[in-house]
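user: can you give me the structure for this one chain? C-alpha coordinates are fine.
assistant: on it. calling the predictor now.
[tool input]
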Amino acid sequence: MTASVEKPSADLAAQGALLRRMLALSWHYRWACLRLLAEQAVLLGLNLTALDLAGVGIDVILYRVGAAKRPAVYPFGWLPPADLSPLAEVGLIAGAILGLALVRGVLNFVYAIDSGHLVHERIVVDLRAQVYDKMQRLSFRLFDANSTGALINRVTGDVQSVRAFVDGVLIQLVILVL
Protein backbone atom coordinates (compact mmCIF):
# COMPACT_ATOMS: atom_id res chain seq x y z
CA MET A 1 0.00 0.00 0.00
CA THR A 2 2.88 2.35 0.69
CA ALA A 3 4.26 1.87 -2.82
CA SER A 4 0.97 2.91 -4.41
CA VAL A 5 0.88 6.06 -2.28
CA GLU A 6 4.48 6.97 -3.13
CA LYS A 7 4.12 6.24 -6.83
CA PRO A 8 1.72 9.12 -7.63
CA SER A 9 3.98 11.60 -5.84
CA ALA A 10 6.99 10.23 -7.73
CA ASP A 11 5.05 10.53 -11.00
CA LEU A 12 4.02 14.05 -10.04
CA ALA A 13 7.63 15.00 -9.32
CA ALA A 14 8.74 13.54 -12.65
CA GLN A 15 5.98 15.40 -14.47
CA GLY A 16 6.97 18.63 -12.71
CA ALA A 17 10.59 18.15 -13.74
CA LEU A 18 9.50 17.43 -17.31
CA LEU A 19 7.30 20.53 -17.35
CA ARG A 20 10.17 22.70 -16.08
CA ARG A 21 12.46 21.27 -18.74
CA MET A 22 9.91 21.90 -21.49
CA LEU A 23 9.41 25.47 -20.29
CA ALA A 24 13.19 25.96 -20.29
CA LEU A 25 13.32 24.76 -23.90
CA SER A 26 10.45 27.10 -24.77
CA TRP A 27 12.21 30.04 -23.13
CA HIS A 28 14.66 30.13 -26.03
CA TYR A 29 11.78 31.14 -28.31
CA ARG A 30 10.15 33.60 -25.92
CA TRP A 31 10.18 36.61 -28.28
CA ALA A 32 8.48 34.70 -31.07
CA CYS A 33 5.95 33.33 -28.56
CA LEU A 34 5.32 36.85 -27.28
CA ARG A 35 4.70 38.00 -30.84
CA LEU A 36 2.13 35.23 -31.28
CA LEU A 37 0.50 36.24 -28.02
CA ALA A 38 0.35 39.88 -29.12
CA GLU A 39 -1.31 38.81 -32.36
CA GLN A 40 -3.82 36.77 -30.36
CA ALA A 41 -4.51 39.73 -28.06
CA VAL A 42 -5.28 41.92 -31.10
CA LEU A 43 -7.53 39.18 -32.49
CA LEU A 44 -9.33 38.99 -29.17
CA GLY A 45 -9.81 42.77 -29.15
CA LEU A 46 -11.21 42.67 -32.69
CA ASN A 47 -13.60 39.85 -31.74
CA LEU A 48 -14.84 41.76 -28.70
CA THR A 49 -15.27 44.94 -30.72
CA ALA A 50 -17.30 43.09 -33.37
CA LEU A 51 -19.44 41.55 -30.65
CA ASP A 52 -19.97 44.98 -29.08
CA LEU A 53 -20.95 46.43 -32.45
CA ALA A 54 -23.48 43.63 -32.95
CA GLY A 55 -25.00 44.59 -29.60
CA VAL A 56 -25.09 48.24 -30.67
CA GLY A 57 -26.88 47.24 -33.87
CA ILE A 58 -29.51 45.40 -31.86
CA ASP A 59 -29.86 48.39 -29.52
CA VAL A 60 -30.31 50.73 -32.50
CA ILE A 61 -33.09 48.56 -33.90
CA LEU A 62 -34.81 48.23 -30.52
CA TYR A 63 -34.64 51.99 -29.92
CA ARG A 64 -35.95 52.85 -33.40
CA VAL A 65 -38.97 50.52 -33.07
CA GLY A 66 -39.74 51.89 -29.62
CA ALA A 67 -38.88 48.77 -27.59
CA ALA A 68 -35.99 50.50 -25.78
CA LYS A 69 -36.13 53.78 -23.87
CA ARG A 70 -32.46 54.73 -24.32
CA PRO A 71 -30.56 55.17 -27.57
CA ALA A 72 -27.70 52.83 -28.37
CA VAL A 73 -24.33 53.55 -26.75
CA TYR A 74 -21.55 53.34 -29.31
CA PRO A 75 -18.05 52.13 -28.42
CA PHE A 76 -15.26 54.64 -27.87
CA GLY A 77 -17.77 57.48 -27.48
CA TRP A 78 -18.44 57.67 -31.21
CA LEU A 79 -21.83 58.95 -32.32
CA PRO A 80 -23.29 58.65 -35.82
CA PRO A 81 -24.51 61.79 -37.60
CA ALA A 82 -27.93 62.89 -36.31
CA ASP A 83 -29.48 62.96 -39.80
CA LEU A 84 -28.62 59.30 -40.49
CA SER A 85 -31.62 57.08 -41.23
CA PRO A 86 -32.12 53.94 -39.11
CA LEU A 87 -31.39 51.68 -42.07
CA ALA A 88 -28.20 53.58 -42.88
CA GLU A 89 -27.17 53.44 -39.22
CA VAL A 90 -27.62 49.66 -39.08
CA GLY A 91 -25.89 49.36 -42.46
CA LEU A 92 -22.94 51.37 -41.14
CA ILE A 93 -22.68 49.07 -38.13
CA ALA A 94 -22.92 45.99 -40.37
CA GLY A 95 -20.19 47.43 -42.61
CA ALA A 96 -17.97 48.02 -39.59
CA ILE A 97 -18.52 44.43 -38.44
CA LEU A 98 -17.68 43.20 -41.95
CA GLY A 99 -14.53 45.34 -41.97
CA LEU A 100 -13.49 43.92 -38.61
CA ALA A 101 -14.10 40.40 -39.92
CA LEU A 102 -11.83 41.09 -42.90
CA VAL A 103 -9.09 42.44 -40.64
CA ARG A 104 -9.50 39.41 -38.37
CA GLY A 105 -9.19 37.10 -41.37
CA VAL A 106 -5.94 38.73 -42.47
CA LEU A 107 -4.58 38.68 -38.93
CA ASN A 108 -5.58 35.01 -38.53
CA PHE A 109 -3.61 34.27 -41.70
CA VAL A 110 -0.59 36.17 -40.37
CA TYR A 111 -0.89 34.31 -37.05
CA ALA A 112 -1.01 30.93 -38.82
CA ILE A 113 2.08 31.81 -40.88
CA ASP A 114 4.00 33.08 -37.83
CA SER A 115 2.98 30.06 -35.76
CA GLY A 116 3.97 27.63 -38.49
CA HIS A 117 7.29 29.41 -38.98
CA LEU A 118 8.07 29.28 -35.27
CA VAL A 119 7.07 25.69 -34.72
CA HIS A 120 8.11 23.98 -37.94
CA GLU A 121 11.01 26.09 -39.17
CA ARG A 122 12.65 27.12 -35.93
CA ILE A 123 11.80 24.83 -33.04
CA VAL A 124 11.84 21.52 -34.90
CA VAL A 125 14.95 22.35 -36.92
CA ASP A 126 16.87 23.61 -33.87
CA LEU A 127 15.87 20.62 -31.75
CA ARG A 128 16.85 18.14 -34.44
CA ALA A 129 20.23 19.82 -34.80
CA GLN A 130 20.77 19.70 -31.03
CA VAL A 131 19.76 16.04 -30.86
CA TYR A 132 22.00 15.15 -33.80
CA ASP A 133 24.90 16.97 -32.15
CA LYS A 134 24.27 15.10 -28.90
CA MET A 135 23.99 11.74 -30.66
CA GLN A 136 27.36 12.23 -32.34
CA ARG A 137 28.98 12.54 -28.93
CA LEU A 138 27.40 9.38 -27.51
CA SER A 139 29.22 6.12 -26.98
CA PHE A 140 29.22 3.46 -29.69
CA ARG A 141 27.71 1.06 -27.14
CA LEU A 142 24.36 2.84 -27.52
CA PHE A 143 24.40 2.26 -31.27
CA ASP A 144 25.47 -1.36 -30.85
CA ALA A 145 22.73 -2.05 -28.29
CA ASN A 146 19.87 -0.39 -30.23
CA SER A 147 18.76 -0.67 -33.82
CA THR A 148 19.04 2.37 -36.04
CA GLY A 149 15.29 2.45 -36.61
CA ALA A 150 14.59 2.50 -32.87
CA LEU A 151 17.01 5.39 -32.34
CA ILE A 152 15.59 7.42 -35.23
CA ASN A 153 12.05 6.73 -34.04
CA ARG A 154 12.93 7.87 -30.52
CA VAL A 155 14.65 11.06 -31.70
CA THR A 156 11.84 11.98 -34.09
CA GLY A 157 9.18 11.26 -31.46
CA ASP A 158 10.93 13.34 -28.81
CA VAL A 159 11.34 16.33 -31.12
CA GLN A 160 7.70 16.14 -32.16
CA SER A 161 6.65 15.91 -28.50
CA VAL A 162 8.47 19.15 -27.73
CA ARG A 163 6.94 20.79 -30.79
CA ALA A 164 3.48 19.63 -29.75
CA PHE A 165 4.05 20.98 -26.24
CA VAL A 166 5.04 24.45 -27.43
CA ASP A 167 2.38 24.66 -30.13
CA GLY A 168 -0.48 22.77 -28.54
CA VAL A 169 -0.01 23.40 -24.84
CA LEU A 170 2.11 26.42 -24.02
CA ILE A 171 0.82 28.86 -26.63
CA GLN A 172 -2.78 27.63 -26.40
CA LEU A 173 -2.74 27.83 -22.59
CA VAL A 174 -1.70 31.46 -22.63
CA ILE A 175 -4.28 32.21 -25.34
CA LEU A 176 -6.94 30.63 -23.14
CA VAL A 177 -5.86 32.79 -20.22
CA LEU A 178 -6.26 35.88 -22.40
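assistant: here you go. DSSP finds five helices and no strands in the chain. The chain has one domain: 38-177.
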